[in-house]
Amino acid sequence: DEQGRTFVYQVTEVSSPIPQLGATAADQARAAAYIAPSAQAKLTLMTGWPAFSNTHYLFVVAQFVGRTQ
């Protein structure tokens, strides 16, 4: 940040691929849960899968660990 602190996060979850094309209601709910607002400090990366495609989503979640000065 502007004060020179580094915020540290640790990856805690990598989802299995979730279909985008032809997704069931359960698939859609599972994907929505990853991007829903949360009271926890976390980062969520959403990307397409497989490489150079977007037929599925893959989510990587990292939880806040702390910060350094």
Largest sheet: 4 strands, antiparallel
Radius of gyration, in angstroms, nearest whole number? 15 Å
Q: What's the total count of β strands?
A: 4
Overall helicity: 10-25%
The helix-strand sequence is EEHEE
Number of helices: 1
Strand content: over 45%
Contiguous runs where pLDDT drops below 50 for at least 5 residues: none
Determine the mean pLDDT.
94
Distance between the termini: 10 Å
Can you walk through the features of this model?
The protein contains 1 helix and 4 strands. 4% of the residues are buried. It has one helix at 25-35, and strands spanning 6-14, 18-19, 42-49, 56-68. The protein is elongated, with a radius of gyration of 15 Å. 16% of the residues lie in helices and 46% in strands. With 69 residues, it is an alpha+beta fold.
Keywords, please?
69 residues, alpha+beta, four-stranded antiparallel β-sheet, 1 helix, 16% helix, elongated
Provide a concise account of the structure shown.
By secondary structure, this protein is an alpha+beta fold. The chain is built from one helix and four strands. Strand 3 and strand 4 form a beta hairpin.
